[in-house]
Design goal:
Elements lengths: L5 E5 L7 E5 L5 E8 L11 H9 L9 E6 L8 H15 L5 H4 E3 L11 E3 L5 E9 L2 H6 L1
Parallel strand pairs: 3-4, 3-7
Antiparallel strand pairs: 1-2, 2-4, 5-6
C-alpha cells in the first residue's frame, strides 16, 4: 500500500482544473500549483508526475503537498486573460482551500463506507505556495 494518499477533486470554478489533496497523518505545508504550456492541458501535461507522486512509495517528499493543476485555453486566450484566471484560481484555493473541496460525498468515494460523506479538512493545511509552469505556463505565471 502506498503511503501517498491522494484525493482528486475538480475545481468547478475553473473548467478543467483540479487538485490532488494529500491526506494522512502528516500536516500539509505546501500548495504546489502546476500551469501547463502552449496547447497543453491540466489533465495531460503533468500526468506522469501525478502518477509518480500518488503511486510511487519512494516519492514521500510530496506527502506534505497538495497539488493543484490549473487549466487555461492557451490557444484562444491572451496571456493577460490567462494570468487573470490564474490569480482568481489561486485566490480560490490559497492560503486555505474551501471546505467543499475537502468534503466528499459517499457516492463519489473510490472505496466503501457507511458515512454519508468524509472530510479531510482535519489535516492541518498551513500553506506555503510553489508555482510551476511549463513553456507558456511560465509566461502566464510571470
Amino acid at each position: 500500500m502506498c503511503s501517498n494518499l491522494r484525493l482528486r477533486r475538480s475545481i468547478s470554478k475553473i473548467k478543467g482544473s483540479y487538485a490532488l489533496f494529500s491526506y494522512g497523518s502528516q500536516p500539509v505545508t505546501t500548495a504546489v500549483i502546476f500551469v501547463h504550456g502552449f496547447m497543453g492541458s491540466a489533465q495531460t501535461t503533468f500526468k506522469d508526475f501525478q502518477t509518480l507522486v500518488s503511486e510511487d512509495p519512494h516519492a514521500t517528499d510530496w506527502t506534505s503537498c497538495d497539488l493543484y493543476f490549473f487549466h487555461y485555453e492557451s490557444v484562444t486566450d491572451s496571456i493577460s486573460t490567462s494570468s487573470e484566471r490564474l490569480v482568481a484560481f489561486m485566490n480560490s484555493v490559497y492560503p486555505q482551500p474551501p471546505e467543499e473541496l475537502l468534503t466528499v460525498k459517499r457516492s463519489l468515494l473510490p472505496w466503501s463506507t457507511t458515512l454519508d460523506a468524509i472530510s479531510i479538512s482535519d489535516v492541518d493545511r498551513n500553506y506555503n505556495s510553489l508555482i510551476l509552469g511549463h513553456s507558456e505556463g511560465g509566461v502566464v505565471i510571470r
